[in-house]
Amino acid sequence: MAAGAEGSAPVSRTAPRLGQIVAGALPLAATPVVVLGGMALFDLADPVAALIGAAASAVVAMIVVRPILRNLSSARRYSQLLARDTATDPPRLDAGSGADDLQELLRQVHDLLAARDKRIDDLAAEAGRILDALPDPILMVARNGHIVRTNRTGRELFGHDVVGRDLAAVTRDPAFLAAADAARDRGESSDVELTILAGRVPHSFGASVAPLPVRGNGGPAVMAVFHDLTAMKRTEQMRVDFVANASHEIRSPLATLVGCIETLRGPARDDEGAWDDFLEMMDDQGKRMTRLVGDLLSLSRIELNEHTRPTGEVDVTDVLARTQTALEWEATAKDMVVRSTLDSPLPTVRGDAAEIEQVAYNLLSNAIKYGRAGTEVTVTAGHRPAPPERARMERIPVVWFTVRDRGDGIASEHLPRLTERFYRVDTARSRELGGTGLGLAIVKHILNRHRGDLTIDSTVGDGSTFTVYLPAADG
Ligand code: ADP
């Protein structure tokens, strides 16, 4: 409660006016004056002595009445100050009033009221702090539709000047405004979904709207609590897309297999020359499905463990050597050479050897797949402070390796999406080369689990460089 400027002013005991004193003293002085006047009239007393006696009675009455009137006027002024609730210090009576008891009583009443006001202020501040600590934005709305209270996240979402504004100026969503009206007018609680611009970006929010018991006219009548559903909706959409993509990827080889079987049973039943072609096609499609199912299983296994950091120690030099050996045949089949330049010795990294090997395998097999026949694939490895230095992991010791190919390269608009599941620059080419569209998604999830990073640089017509960063084991 704000302290008024006049709160600590003493209560001046304004002297009662002469008229007030005379009026107050009149009942007291009346009896002796009338008695003395009667005695003078009936010659029972000397008129001069009676006049002096009456005057003396009046003066004595006035002397008695004056301080009583002064204290009454102080008490009245004091009660006016309390009623205005602005006092921080108790009003003071002037010294020398002889009214110590009254002063003490006034002080006790004042202290009680001041303690009550402080308690109310403390409770209001505590309620504000609790609201601010809540992670979801909150709006409280009065009966007239004005916002009367919010919290920290509410101010961040709706603006720092949101208190005092009309609810309809904050959002025009009809379902939300109807829910607020229903809470206010009929005491109904409801949940609605609405879109709110958060920094010019539309976000999906769920809002729980509920009535509040109204104490005063301007007090909150409706409370709305908002929860951001954007991330949940995005995840849900990704799940739906993933199921649709995975079914589509499995359906096409299955359709080819079924078609081959029908042809072999039907028109090509007796065409022995066609049997070999169809069997080869079936073999291809069967292997494609096997790769797809294998990659899907790897992805789900890695995602399952993504939040548990691996604890093993891995020698990247060994991993790269094993991967190179495993893919030697593919490289030779395309007349390609894999050349390695590795810093020696490399620090070990904290990780899962099989998963890091899968990262190296996916990148090297892509380089062979998408590199031009007869060209060279270069594998380099090192550790900080050697370049390149583009990863997010700026301050910790890292081991990095790069796989560089001489292929057609990738246009820059595709680069940010390459690690999405089933994202391909050229779907037909990827399928023709035996790709599943999951290799880089697997790489990304493994690196997430290892708190590592991947950067991709590519020049159309020249080739691509994929760089992996892994935290060193002693980092
Ligand atoms: P895929 O099984 O199709 O190769 P990936 O997830 O490994 O799937 O790669 C996704 C897409 O990224 C590929 O379809 C391809 O278009 C592109 N890509 C990946 N690596 C390279 C590369 N070294 N050169 C050119 N394009 C590449």
Describe this structure in words.
- This protein has 475 residues and is α+β, with helices and mostly antiparallel strands.
- It has helices at residues 18-41, 47-84, 100-133, 152-158, 167-170, 174-186, 230-265, 272-305, 316-326, 328-333, 353-370, 427-432, 439-449; strands at residues 138-142, 147-150, 190-198, 201-211, 220-228, 313-314, 337-342, 349-350, 376-383, 398-404, 453-459, 463-471.
- The protein is elongated.
- 51% of the residues lie in helices and 17% in strands.
- It folds into four domains: 3-128, no CATH class; 134-228, 2-Layer Sandwich (Beta-Lactamase); 235-308, Orthogonal Bundle (Helix Hairpins); 311-475, Heat Shock Protein 90 (2-Layer Sandwich), CATH 3.30.565.10.
- The longest helix is centred in the first third of the chain and has 38 residues, at 47-84.
- Adenosine-5'-diphosphate binds at residues 362, 366-367, 370, 405, 407, 410, 418, 424-426, 430, 435-441, 464.
Concise synopsis of the structure shown:
The protein folds into four domains: 3-128, no CATH class; 134-228, Beta-Lactamase (2-Layer Sandwich); 235-308, Orthogonal Bundle (Helix Hairpins), CATH 1.10.287; 311-475, 2-Layer Sandwich (Heat Shock Protein 90). Helix content is 51%, strand content 17%. It has helices spanning 18-41, 47-84, 100-133, 152-158, 167-170, 174-186, 230-265, 272-305, 316-326, 328-333, 353-370, 427-432, 439-449; strands at residues 138-142, 147-150, 190-198, 201-211, 220-228, 313-314, 337-342, 349-350, 376-383, 398-404, 453-459, 463-471.
